[in-house]
Amino acid sequence: MASKRFHILPGFSLTLGYTITYLSLIVLIPMAALFLRVTALTWDEFWKIAVSDRALASYRVTFGAAFIAALINAVMGTLLAWVLVRYRFPGRRMLDALIDFPFALPTAVAGLTLANLFSAKGWMGSWLDVAGIKVAYAQPGIVVALIFIGIPFVVRSLQPVLEDIEVEVEEAAASLGANRLTTFTRVILPTLMPAILTGFSLAFARAIGEYGSVIFIAPKESEIAPQLIWYRLEEYDYPGAMAIAVVMLVISFCLLITVNLLERWASRFQR
Amino acid sequence: MAGSTQKRWTSGHAKSRRGAEDPWYVRWILIVVSLGFAGIFLVLPLVNVFDQALAKGWQIAVGSLGDPDTMSAMKLTALVSAICVPLNTLFGIAAAWLIAKFEFPGKALLTTLIDLPFSVSPVVSGLLYVILFGLKGYFGPWLDRHDIQIIFAVPGIVLATIFVTFPFVARELIPLMQAQGSDQEQAALTLGATGWQTFWHVTLPSIKWGLLYGVILCTARAVGEFGAVSVVSGHITGITDTLPLRIEKLDKEYNSVAAFSIAALLAVLALLTLGLKTWLEHRQQRELDLAQTSSDSSDEH
User: Using CB atoms, which residue from B46, B119, B123 is nearest to A230?
Assistant: First the structure.
């Protein structure tokens, strides 16, 4: 019956035509063009560029830093979501609103201020400098920038799940003799796990593609993969840029599929 | 008095009882650690922007914004956003209408494809257009013969910005319109309204807050986009530098106050975005609660 009633609504062919045309012009054709151009390379040529020493080094920096940052975000994001949902304290609403700040702030601004903050003269950097730790213009700086841009993902995917958890289950665990820590690790954490993993994957996916904030704080001697693409383009070395771009795209698509599967898994969990 | 302080600091669940509550010291430690983390990674960077911008006083900070090259970057950023946001808004409305109101094969695939630009690195997004329109790209030679420049010019910047902000409005509207269903539109049409009348007087008013939300997020990203624009801009001072690119250039020239002054301007915009976003979420929540209570009370009758 529902499908019958749908047909009265006008605008199907108009919106379908417009959506498909615009999507094709902006997204599909440019992407197809990239893959088409890459097929002009032989497999050997492609492979040689994609796994050249410099490319491999850039993947190591990119994925290593993104992984560490996403891991820290997973832990701190879980903590933040827990505190925001479960506790009431002055400034809670402010903190809740501030979580989205990295989404709203241009990445160049984030990179500029984080590099300054964690440089040897900055508020944070001068403290760390005393301890002999160099953050800005060193590899930890990349992690710091990626932590910043990834903060919202885990918090925002966890909050709705935490709000839906039934307190009765925890009380049942407690009444059966479990202490609070056991309740958390055996009862609460397993329920939260799909959402934590989703948030982790989203933060990781965002981090591997990030460019703007990283270039301000990254050291000169190590480069991330998007930076390498940029350099190749600057040298008009299109094949070099495209091969690395395709590697990054394929990994991003795999992550996108992972996130979709995780979300499906999570929704099954909630039911 | 002591009771009220106690209440403010304890668990949020009014009904929560023993067994689902953390001991007070655990609460304290977790709150302090969270606030510390947020302080270092969210508050300090923000405060630092303004502190650095004002390092040599208000006048120099504001004066640096009046630099002709910075002014032209402002105009370019405004122009690019003014083109991208309406185009993507129109697309978002059309796509949401299509996906929320009709059933057709390939719908799930279409929804995934709309989200695709989110999972593409900004640098790769820029690269896509260089491959199409760059001098050594597919249409490069043809464009060159006809003296049309897209890459290293404003059209390229607009295209790259449209790409990275592509899903914002659509992705806000699709779930909203799906949740609302199409009963109201059906009723309007049955009563003799035309398709456009139905859209303007029935659909648009009911999605306006969600639409505004999407537009705000889209604008914030359009103004702040860096990676994609950096690839296609060519960095010609005064001509193809947007505000974020201008920040990078000034920072490289060790002109810290000027770089941070633009950063402060963009940070104010970001705070405004955040404020509007929070207000809109609050409003939506209230309308949802109102709708729920009114339907609850009508159930009772």
Answer: B123
